[in-house]
Amino acid sequence: MILLDGKKTSAEIKEEIAIEVAKLKEQGKKTPHLAAILVGNDGASRTYVNAKVKACEKVGFNSTLVRLEDTISEEELLSEINKLNTNNDIDGFIVQLPLPKHIDEQKVLMAVNPDKDVDGFHPTNVGKMTLNLPTFLPATPAGILELLERYNVETSGKNVVVIGRSHIVGSPMSILLSQKRTVGNATVTITHSRTKNLEAFTKEADIVVVALGVAEFLKGDMVKDGVVVIDVGITRVDDATKKNGFRLLGDVHFESVAPKASYITPVPGGVGPMTIAMLMKNTLLARERSEA
Question: Would you state the pLDDT for residue 170?
Fold first, then answer.
């Protein structure tokens, strides 16, 4: 069993990006600039945004964090997005999800300029991805592709089962892995909460991508020997023995699945760090495109 080490791989990617940024600065060119909008005080969202700001510092990007109260109106939030859309110094930006209940997430994501949509969530970029045209790929699926490629995990002709159909992970992952690309050419089955006899699918899978949001959902008796397992889930569980009062669990029951796996991502330290690395990669791409 080989651990797909997202922490180590993301550090390598960030190092590669830092070299590119250093070259831009040497040539007197504009430093890439990523902005993030954080609405409210959700603990997990704050953690994610802080990690993104730290990653910007690490690679030499400029970063801006726009903090807004969770009482902000939808109209005011759209106004803040417009400011970033029209600010030529900002190459790309993200709106950290989830948003407060009174704000329409779809409306907000539609308001982001597709050329600055480094999360890859805008319908324009989703459409380009679906047609296999150059665009910003959603950061988490892109991170998974990168991890599989750097560990030389074969996907061509493989039977892949994706558990979960979200627009952020499950749906784009199924599209990307079935496409004609280096990490692709797989036969993909997308499953979800309404799938009957889900185990029948997972037991036949060469690769399983779990993005369901249910802690330790995938058990060892649901997979075959030699399976490749990508765990996208992350759930906080109260744990008084831990200094911070909680521990993080993935969607995979690691203890029972790992002994059967040929490759597996840990939680934490697997897909999560890769997501942030790919966000940096998309920002560098946005910076390059703005000059083209």
Answer: 97
224 and 184 co-located in one domain: yes
- What pLDDT is recorded for position 244? 80
Residue 287 lies in a domain: no
- Catalytic, 224? Answer no
Query: Following DSSP, what letter does each residue of the chain receive, concatenated?
Result: -EE--HHHHHHHHHHHHHHHHHHHHHTTPPPPEEEEEEES--HHHHHHHHHHHHHHHHHT-EEEEEEE-TT--HHHHHHHHHHHHT-TT--EEEEPSPPPTTS-HHHHHHHS-GGGBTT--SHHHHHHHHTT-S-PPPHHHHHHHHHHHHTT---TT-EEEEE---TTTHHHHHHHHHSSSSS---EEEEE-TT-TTHHHHHTT-SEEEE-S--TT-B-GGGS-TTEEEEE---EEEE-TTSTTSEEEE-SB-HHHHGGGEEEE--SSSSHHHHHHHHHHHHHHHHHHHHH-
Residues 107 and 199 in one domain: no
Find the CATH number of the domain harbouring 74. Answer: 3.40.50.10860
Same domain? 109 vs 145: no
Give me the number of domains the chain comprises.
Answer: 2
Residue 177: give the domain boundaries. Answer: 139-273
pLDDT at 292: 63
Of 5, 117, 119, 231, which residue is the catalytic one? 119
pLDDT at 236: 82
Catalytically annotated residue among 5, 14, 52, 251: 52
Please tell me the predicted confidence (pLDDT) of residue 290.
Answer: 84
Confidence at residue 242, expressed as pLDDT on a 0 to 100 scale: 82
User: Is residue 44 a part of any domain in this protein?
Assistant: yes
170 plus 78 within the same structural domain: no
Low-confidence stretches of the chain (pLDDT beneath 50) = none
Verify whether residue 117 is a known catalytic residue: no
Is residue 96 flagged as an active site residue? yes
Annotated catalytic residue, options 5, 14, 91, 96 = 96
